[in-house]
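Input chain follows. Return structure tokens only.
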Amino acid sequence: MKPLSIQFCLFLFLYINCSYAQDYTSKLDTIKKSYPNAVNNDTIHKAYFASGCFWCVEVIYESLKGVIKVNSGYSGGFTKNPTYQLVNTETTGHAETVEIIYNQKLISFSQLVDVYFGSQNIEQINGQGPDNGSQYRSIIFFQNEEQRIIANNKIIYLEEEFSLNVAAELYPFQKFWIGEDYHQDFKKNNKNNIYIIKVSNPRFKKFSNQFNHLIKNK
């Protein structure tokens, strides 16, 4: 009877995990097929990107001419009121995401997408640099068909022109959940943090060398 009990427990474990994986995938597929929510109007423009750790991405976009403010948070998933700890369990569907508030007269969505691809490892799946997991996956959120086409055309260009396997996914934007206070302006408030020194600063330097013309006070 003992071997049978072990076999049953193993079967039950595999069944539960398989059912959970199917449910998780189904929920994300539903989100991907949803109609996007538009938050832009004549005076305010916002863009949303997931590209690894938001500490790195936040400071990159904050440096751009025309960008008014950047918030770190979560998007892309199905769990309401996500927290940093919960998102790190990889059960919420959410990815670390930045909300970019920008002046469309000074910088365009197309340029923001260029910066997106120019500041990441384009082919890295579920992560950037040392950060790995679905919460660090790459997502470009679109609010309308025009934005979807812009992002998709850039993906096609990168894949055809440079033979790259672009990891970034396109998601219809649903909702942005602002992150905890201590995540906001993290580099500015934690300049001596070892992660900032070893990971964020080198990533910013690599980006700035390529997009020097878009950086404020340059």
